[in-house]
Amino acid sequence: MKGSSTSDLDVETQLVHLVQASSALLSRSDPGKALRTIFELAASFVTADAYAVWRMQAESRWVRVASLGLSDQYEKVAFSESAIGPLPEDIFSIEDLQSHPLVARRHEMYRAEGLRSMLTIPLLIHGERTGTLVFYYRSPHQFSAAEKTLAGALGHLAGAALSTAELCASQIEMRAAAEAAESRAAFLAKAGEALAASLDYETTLETVAELAVPDFADWCGVDLLLKNGEIKRLAVKHFNPAKIAFMRELIEKYPPGEADAGRIAISTGNSLLMSEITEGLITARARDAEHARLILELGLKSFIVVPLVAPGRVFGALTFATAESQRTYTAADLQLAEDLARRAATAIDNAQLHREVRDNEERLRLAIDAGKIGAWDWDVRNDHVEWSDRVYEMHGVAPGTFGGKVQDFSKLIHPDDLQMVESAIRNSLERGEPYDLEFRVIHHTGEVRWLTTSARVIYDEQGRPVRMLGATMDTTDRRRAEEVAEKQAEALARSNSELQQFAFAASHDLQEPLRMVRIFGQLLSRQYKGKLDSQADQFLEQIESGTERMANLIQDLLAYSQVLHGEPAVTLVDCNEVLAVVLQSCRASIEESGALIEAGPLPTIPAEKLQLVQLFQNLLSNAIKYRKLNEAPRIRIDARETPKEWLLCFADNGIGIAAEHQDRIFAVFARLGGNESGGTGLGLAICERIVKRREGRIWVESEPGVGSRFYVALPRSVSAPV
Ligand code: ADP
Description:
Helix content is 49%, strand content 22%. With 722 residues, the protein is of the alpha+beta class. The strands form 5 sheets. It has a 6-stranded antiparallel β-sheet with strand order 3-2-1-6-5-4. A 5-stranded antiparallel β-sheet has the order 8-7-11-10-9, with helices on both faces. A 5-stranded antiparallel β-sheet has the order 13-12-16-15-14, with helices on both faces. The model is unreliable at 1-6 (pLDDT under 50). Bound molecules: adenosine-5'-diphosphate. Residues 618, 622-623, 626, 652, 654-657, 665, 670-673, 677, 679-685, 708 line the site of adenosine-5'-diphosphate (ADP).
């Protein structure tokens, strides 16, 4: 009893010490550190050969989470509760492990480890008996009440300390997870904003890469898959520009190959997460020792590659890597990267759609402008030309065999037109000059075709040309028709001039023999009229009238051919003077017909005086000639000024002209009546020629039986006569 009271007193002192030490234990927020402190306290309060803390984990399996003084071999495999049965609820001791029935199945294990006695204290963790603190002895040990009391107290303390530490740890973990989730959400929100801000996907992707560094990665790279299958590195970001320069050099020296992670992601459409980039891995994957050395110098730690997937196709990849931050990517980071890539892909898809719509509108407009033929699209930066099927046809190239570079296009151009086309392209790109031209191409069959093309250049925000959109049409047929119309026009002009010369020469040369016929006809009639028979007299009359008609015809033909003859001599001509001359020369017929001729104020106009006299003469003499039988001719000449022309009007009260003949009468030899008027059918043709030579117009308005109005419109300005 005495011993026990001393022992009780000792226990009391010990308990006070334990309580004093407990604050150190309870302040542990790290379960690992808490376990170490538990063993330290256990060792100083209850002396044993070994200590262990066991925890019951999933499926009621017991696992040794920490121990002191036990060999590594001991109890490596977790055992289940079913194997040992439920633990006693309270502290229990086994003084002989080799014979105790409770641990019968584990005798062998204890023997191997050399354990003889054991004290087990259940630990109440988070209110449940899910742990034990065990004291092991390698020689038989009898447990005193004091030992049990102290061990029990230590067990309570250990349970509380573990609960607190685990709670703390889980809180820290949760807080970290919450913070990580928050920063991811913030990053995604920022990226989302950037993605929505621009419709230019290259800019957009660069912005995303910029955002990722350094929040999410130390390195970020963006690769784009071009239409021709090439992969273009769009951006490489790092917060330190010197590092970017280093990376550029590395890429230039060792361009990404087939085994490059970005390429694999693009070709398979799968993401890649490498949490730990080991030196061994780098050495194994590097092309050579120098390559490995350079990569190692970057100090890469962890990386993620995610493909950029638009509906149905992969168009690039985002690569994130860590180095300086020593951060290790986890599955959650991969998820974030994938989320980002999805958003980027959607944004880019939108941007492309937008661009396509815009381009289509532009193409459509150009196609309409150019006559709906073929469309082409030149990606200036990547020097890639896309042709519509029609354009292939026009260039005589089988679909799919066109190289797609401007150089390939140049090869198809006719050598004589190549320089013109190339300088037009240059002027359009560099100076924004309109690209509208006609040039020749040579088909592989040797056929030469004419093409007309029209294009617009699209520039980026910095004013650099990015694309040229154009429409082309085949104008060979039009061109040939023009050419035909041109040799024809020339031929016509030549034959006209020949005819002109012939008419002039013929009429001129005919005058002389005709004069002879007339003179001898007159001599015959003077000497023999009335002296031969009546038939001979009739023949003589016919010779006379025939020669007169012929003389008129020759005179008119000469006048007609002379209208276009010689250099035009345009001067300012007073129409009043012209009229006076004509009235004088027509005096006989005026008097004979009793014609009344009136004129309003007449202008002074630019004209060839003699031709104007002829015009007045012809119109006036017609007005007298085609008078009504029983009515004296009344003729009025007026002039009116319009902004561009002088308008002269010759009105008569003659027989008039039926509507269906009003156009015809201006043609050569067109006559409506019989021969009684003595006309040649050339008078109005001469008038029309005179007027047209001055780029004027002549027409008639008439009502049969009422009269006619001949209008002559002559330009007010002195332009070159035709
Ligand atoms: P020509 O008078 O020598 O027959 P023109 O060329 O001067 O030839 O006239 C062509 C025809 O137009 C004439 O034959 C006549 O039938 C008709 N014509 C011309 N002027 C008049 C007019 N003032 N009134 C009615 N008919 C006219």
